[in-house]
Write a structure and sequence with these properties.
By secondary structure, the protein is α+β, with helices and mostly antiparallel strands. Helix content is about 15%, strand content about 25%.
Protein backbone atom coordinates (compact mmCIF):
# COMPACT_ATOMS: atom_id res chain seq x y z
CA UNK A 1 0.00 0.00 0.00
CA UNK A 2 3.06 2.23 0.19
CA UNK A 3 4.67 4.62 2.60
CA UNK A 4 5.18 8.32 1.98
CA UNK A 5 7.95 10.35 3.55
CA UNK A 6 7.19 14.05 3.48
CA UNK A 7 8.90 17.13 4.80
CA UNK A 8 8.60 20.89 4.78
CA UNK A 9 11.07 22.69 2.53
CA UNK A 10 13.30 21.24 -0.15
CA UNK A 11 13.42 17.48 -0.75
CA UNK A 12 17.10 17.44 0.25
CA UNK A 13 15.83 16.79 3.78
CA UNK A 14 14.45 13.42 2.72
CA UNK A 15 17.31 12.54 0.36
CA UNK A 16 19.80 13.20 3.18
CA UNK A 17 17.79 11.03 5.61
CA UNK A 18 16.62 13.89 7.83
CA UNK A 19 13.71 13.68 10.23
CA UNK A 20 10.51 13.77 8.18
CA UNK A 21 6.95 12.52 8.53
CA UNK A 22 6.06 9.00 7.39
CA UNK A 23 2.53 7.84 6.65
CA UNK A 24 0.55 5.41 4.53
CA UNK A 25 -1.47 7.15 1.82
CA UNK A 26 -4.20 4.57 2.45
CA UNK A 27 -4.37 5.55 6.15
CA UNK A 28 -3.30 9.21 6.25
CA UNK A 29 -4.96 9.94 9.60
CA UNK A 30 -2.90 7.29 11.41
CA UNK A 31 0.63 8.66 11.75
CA UNK A 32 2.69 6.76 14.31
CA UNK A 33 5.02 9.72 14.93
CA UNK A 34 2.02 11.76 16.08
CA UNK A 35 0.42 9.12 18.31
CA UNK A 36 1.44 10.92 21.52
CA UNK A 37 2.52 14.51 22.15
CA UNK A 38 5.85 13.26 23.56
CA UNK A 39 6.56 11.24 20.41
CA UNK A 40 5.56 14.14 18.17
CA UNK A 41 7.87 16.51 20.04
CA UNK A 42 10.77 14.07 19.60
CA UNK A 43 10.13 12.70 16.11
CA UNK A 44 8.94 15.59 13.97
CA UNK A 45 11.03 17.78 11.70
CA UNK A 46 13.39 20.22 13.44
CA UNK A 47 15.15 21.70 10.40
CA UNK A 48 14.36 22.44 6.77
CA UNK A 49 16.23 23.32 3.61
CA UNK A 50 15.46 26.42 1.55
CA UNK A 51 16.94 28.07 -1.48
CA UNK A 52 18.96 31.16 -0.55
CA UNK A 53 17.23 33.87 -2.59
CA UNK A 54 19.40 36.79 -1.42
CA UNK A 55 21.16 38.21 -4.51
CA UNK A 56 24.26 39.08 -2.49
CA UNK A 57 24.60 35.46 -1.36
CA UNK A 58 24.28 33.83 -4.78
CA UNK A 59 27.31 31.80 -5.82
CA UNK A 60 27.38 30.46 -9.40
CA UNK A 61 28.32 26.80 -9.16
CA UNK A 62 27.69 23.39 -10.68
CA UNK A 63 27.23 22.12 -7.11
CA UNK A 64 23.45 22.00 -6.65
CA UNK A 65 23.80 22.32 -2.87
CA UNK A 66 25.81 25.54 -2.83
CA UNK A 67 22.90 28.04 -2.61
CA UNK A 68 20.84 26.06 -0.10
CA UNK A 69 20.29 27.06 3.51
CA UNK A 70 19.67 24.64 6.37
CA UNK A 71 17.37 26.44 8.78
CA UNK A 72 15.76 25.73 12.12
CA UNK A 73 12.04 24.99 11.78
CA UNK A 74 11.29 27.99 14.06
CA UNK A 75 12.43 30.23 11.19
CA UNK A 76 9.54 28.94 9.07
CA UNK A 77 6.93 30.66 11.25
CA UNK A 78 7.00 33.74 9.00
CA UNK A 79 6.42 31.81 5.77
CA UNK A 80 2.75 31.65 4.67
CA UNK A 81 2.97 28.06 3.39
CA UNK A 82 4.20 26.84 6.80
CA UNK A 83 0.70 27.41 8.18
CA UNK A 84 -0.56 24.58 5.94
CA UNK A 85 1.72 21.98 7.55
CA UNK A 86 2.11 23.15 11.14
CA UNK A 87 0.36 22.14 14.33
CA UNK A 88 0.82 23.84 17.69
CA UNK A 89 1.90 22.19 20.94
CA UNK A 90 -0.08 23.54 23.88
CA UNK A 91 2.37 23.25 26.78
CA UNK A 92 -0.21 24.01 29.47
CA UNK A 93 -2.62 21.25 28.39
CA UNK A 94 0.15 19.05 26.92
CA UNK A 95 -1.78 18.53 23.69
CA UNK A 96 -1.17 19.15 20.04
CA UNK A 97 -3.70 21.37 18.30
CA UNK A 98 -4.04 20.92 14.56
CA UNK A 99 -3.24 24.22 12.91
CA UNK A 100 -1.03 27.25 13.40
CA UNK A 101 -1.78 29.20 16.59
CA UNK A 102 0.29 32.09 17.91
CA UNK A 103 1.06 30.62 21.34
CA UNK A 104 2.93 27.33 21.52
CA UNK A 105 5.69 25.39 19.83
CA UNK A 106 5.12 24.66 16.14
CA UNK A 107 5.44 21.08 14.89
CA UNK A 108 5.48 19.87 11.30
CA UNK A 109 2.56 17.41 11.30
CA UNK A 110 0.81 18.04 7.96
CA UNK A 111 -2.41 17.46 9.95
CA UNK A 112 -4.41 20.05 8.00
CA UNK A 113 -3.60 18.07 4.86
CA UNK A 114 -3.64 14.48 6.15
CA UNK A 115 -6.47 14.66 8.71
CA UNK A 116 -8.55 17.57 7.48
CA UNK A 117 -7.90 17.08 3.74
CA UNK A 118 -7.24 20.71 2.85
CA UNK A 119 -5.23 19.27 -0.05
CA UNK A 120 -5.83 15.73 -1.41
CA UNK A 121 -2.21 14.59 -1.01
CA UNK A 122 -2.97 11.09 0.29
CA UNK A 123 -5.48 10.48 -2.50
CA UNK A 124 -3.06 11.69 -5.19
CA UNK A 125 -0.23 9.53 -3.83
CA UNK A 126 -2.43 6.46 -3.50
CA UNK A 127 -3.58 6.82 -7.11
CA UNK A 128 -0.05 7.32 -8.45
CA UNK A 129 1.26 4.36 -6.43
CA UNK A 130 -1.51 2.07 -7.72
CA UNK A 131 -1.14 3.10 -11.37
CA UNK A 132 2.66 3.11 -11.24
CA UNK A 133 2.88 -0.33 -9.64
CA UNK A 134 0.42 -1.77 -12.16
CA UNK A 135 2.20 -0.28 -15.17
CA UNK A 136 5.75 -1.10 -13.99
CA UNK A 137 4.77 -4.51 -12.64
CA UNK A 138 6.81 -3.75 -9.53
CA UNK A 139 6.50 -1.68 -6.37
CA UNK A 140 7.53 1.88 -7.17
CA UNK A 141 9.17 4.89 -5.63
CA UNK A 142 8.13 8.40 -6.59
CA UNK A 143 9.39 11.89 -5.89
CA UNK A 144 7.10 14.87 -5.82
CA UNK A 145 6.80 18.44 -4.62
CA UNK A 146 3.75 20.47 -3.64
CA UNK A 147 3.32 24.23 -3.81
CA UNK A 148 0.82 25.26 -1.13
CA UNK A 149 1.55 28.97 -1.39
CA UNK A 150 -0.56 29.89 -4.40
CA UNK A 151 -2.59 33.09 -4.90
CA UNK A 152 -6.03 33.21 -3.31
CA UNK A 153 -8.53 31.34 -5.47
CA UNK A 154 -5.82 29.39 -7.31
CA UNK A 155 -5.41 25.65 -6.79
CA UNK A 156 -2.46 24.21 -4.89
CA UNK A 157 0.04 22.55 -7.22
CA UNK A 158 1.22 18.93 -7.09
CA UNK A 159 4.43 18.39 -9.08
CA UNK A 160 5.20 14.79 -10.03
CA UNK A 161 9.01 14.73 -10.35
CA UNK A 162 10.01 11.13 -11.03
CA UNK A 163 9.02 7.50 -10.76
CA UNK A 164 11.15 4.37 -10.67
CA UNK A 165 10.61 0.71 -9.84
CA UNK A 166 11.86 -0.68 -6.56
CA UNK A 167 13.85 -3.76 -7.54
CA UNK A 168 15.38 -6.35 -5.28
CA UNK A 169 19.07 -7.17 -5.69
CA UNK A 170 18.36 -10.51 -7.36
CA UNK A 171 16.26 -8.67 -9.97
CA UNK A 172 19.10 -6.34 -10.89
CA UNK A 173 21.56 -7.41 -13.54
CA UNK A 174 25.16 -6.33 -13.87
CA UNK A 175 25.96 -5.29 -17.39
CA UNK A 176 29.51 -6.24 -18.48
CA UNK A 177 30.61 -2.75 -19.57
CA UNK A 178 34.25 -3.85 -19.78
CA UNK A 179 33.30 -6.26 -22.61
CA UNK A 180 31.75 -3.51 -24.75
CA UNK A 181 33.78 -2.61 -27.84
CA UNK A 182 33.69 1.20 -27.81
CA UNK A 183 34.82 1.28 -31.46
CA UNK A 184 31.43 -0.14 -32.47
Amino acid sequence: EGIATIGYGLGKLIVDGGVALRFSPRYPKKVLQLSTPEMALRQTQKQFYALDMRPESFVPSIDDGINILKLDIREANDYPDFRHVASTYDHINQTIRDGFYEDGKKLVTFSNILKHQTFPLAEILQTILEIGQKEMNNPIEIEFAVNLDTPLGWPKIFNFLQIRPIVENEQAEDFPWNEVDCEK
